[in-house]
Write the structure tokens for this entry.
Amino acid sequence: MLDRGELPMGLTGQSTWLGALKNEYSMNDTVLDGVVVALAGNPNTGKSTLFNSITGLNQHTGNWPGKTVTLAYGNYYYADNKFLLVDLPGTYSLLSNSVEEEVARDYICFAKPKACIVVADATCLERNLNLVLQVLEITDKVVVCVNLMDEADRKKINIDFEKLSAILGVPVVGTNARDGKGIDELMQSVYKVAANQMQSMPLKIKYDEVIEEAVEHIRPYVQNIVKDELDSRWVALRLIEGEWKTLDTINSFLKSRLYKNDDLKQELKKANEILQAKYHGTDEIRDAIVSSIVRKAEEISKMVVSFENKRYNEMDRKIDDILTSKTFGIPIMLALLGFVFWLTISGANYPSEIIAKVLFRIEDILTDYCFKWGVPEWIHGALVLGVYRTSAWVVSVMLPPMAIFFPLFTLLEDLGYLPRVAFNLDNFFKKACAHGKQALTMCMGFGCNAAGIIGCRIIDSPRERLIAIITNNFVPCNGRFPTLIALSTIFIAGSFGKFQTVIAALTLLGAIIIGVLITLAVSRILSATILKGIPSTFTLELPPYRKPQVGKILIRSLLDRTLFVLARAVIVAAPTGLIIWLMANTTVENLSILKWSGKILEPIGHLLGMDGYILLAFILGFPANEIVIPIIAMSYMATGSLIEIETLSALKELLIDNGWTYLTAVCTMLFSLNHFPCGTTLLTIYKETQSLKWTAISFLVPTITGIIICFTVAQTIRCCQIMMLL
Amino acid sequence: MEKNLILLDNLPVGNCGRVKKLTAKGNIRRRMLDLGLIEETQVEALRKSPSGDPTAYQIRGAVIALRSEEASKILVEMC
């Protein structure tokens, strides 16, 4: 429960000048200040694009106290004033009690932003007005931003802004966030509203006579309690419809003054008598209230929107006919995703080599300096051969594929294709008691599981979101592809001659399909056990297709996803580099700790169809799965630092000399597919769930799955081999 | 139940229906209302997912996919 003491903003540090606009508060040790402006809006209205184009790179994220919904904060300056823009979760309404809606509603009600921008989609104004009208009931300080004007122009949808503004009683600005059109005007309106330079006369919805009578009956008593802290009419409406979850929050905000007031209790009884003349139960009253809002939105939309072309969405339908068709929908999807993977894998090799060359050249230079300055050998080894080399390795293998995959993925996102993937695949996920959007986070996992887990934010119900987070690791990421490709080429495709590459690709595809099947199976098991519950309501909007902004995509996906993930990877890789080096270079009774560990792990490794060194490589590969094969090679060759084997045939020889068989390869591939998430991913899971318990579960679930699968496969095949000998 | 009323998930693709009644309760009901599914709202069944479910509907200018579980809680009159 949110109580007043927890409120981070609006209530502290109010200074007098600047029109007493300034709020200051601290969150996650970052002090954020500025005039607080909330950004609300439906999903798919380009709200994030607007947020990005207003705040640029001055962004922070933080959680609303007690909730796992992440809010993004960003500063901007206008007319010499510093503003703090708060990106609220995208919601269709403020009344449905999903976590997002609660956060958005609580923020608008209790955090007292100095202005609230409500973003609406110009191509779908009617539905968006629903939220606008609801916000207007809570606060007067609203600026309506009608975004995606370019799309509306393209579809020949005309909106009369003056009329809309006159009807709503607040400023209305048309924008096109993607090319910055209208942003200046928007900031100006926000400034005026925040500085009280603009007299707004917000439209308040008229409900039917009975409801109005009941509201007016209790309103004076509510007014006495809420004073000017909240809108009395809005609170009275919530009392009448018996919206207890909201009322509890209001009550604790008002330090129990709402529930403890006996006068109000008395009058509420009378109000209920008035209501009983027409309504039976609160459900009916709620229906009537929501219906009035929806009808009003319809009415306003009819007055201000005109369609020059009645068949404005014909094009979208035609595209959908193909992309979600019964026959071609899924094949096209597989082909598209396959193409993205292929481009990622094949396109990444060359830049990977270049980056590796540059970074290892720097290593040589560092080594030279170490010699020149007489740095002790062990310090050079630990820092340069350990920390630096491992980090450099991770960067050179991880950066290029991510720099290719994420922009491509963002491109599909920007086009509006991704919701169609969820639409195509939802039935499979429904059967696994999971959310259709998990299909998307799963696809992102192919690029990087950490990014996939951040992507799980798009799933709005907490239960389904956790399922998606825990199972994300079952799809192989870019870091595990190289292991899978190398092993399938050597051991499975090796004997197929000229069909080798095809077989290798098919094996990889098989691995991916196994990963997807395991994802579905584990999701099902989770929702029958620790994450019990019925699937939450599934409503998925299929937004109109949009022309992507290629330049912006490149920059944003590079900054938001690629560099973000890479930075976390380096943070985890550097210390592990040190540990690996120390293990390989500290000897006890003539054997390095690395060798000892391998020997100790040998029995377990054998049970799982592998050997001790492979298992050790997976454990040491915790910071990033890319280094698993290099560690295996390093252990077999007893070198002191990571080495790369130049050719596949050399690797094959090394592996076979060390006792690898077909079974070892299969089990290693299976374990690569099913084991604990890498350090970066676990760190991300912790940040996203804010819970050690779920982080631990995300660690255990894939690990246990991997152990069970490898054990079963290894023992079954061994049994079969024995039977064949007999 | 009146004769000419059908469940939304039985509305054939390509056809229109007019919402007459929601049988859903609680939050699901609220969510449907928020999407604009109030009485007399016209809904068009656009297409079914290749995997059979959900179905995409045109509701007040937006395209929204509903699973059959949800759609079966909406009574419509074919129009």
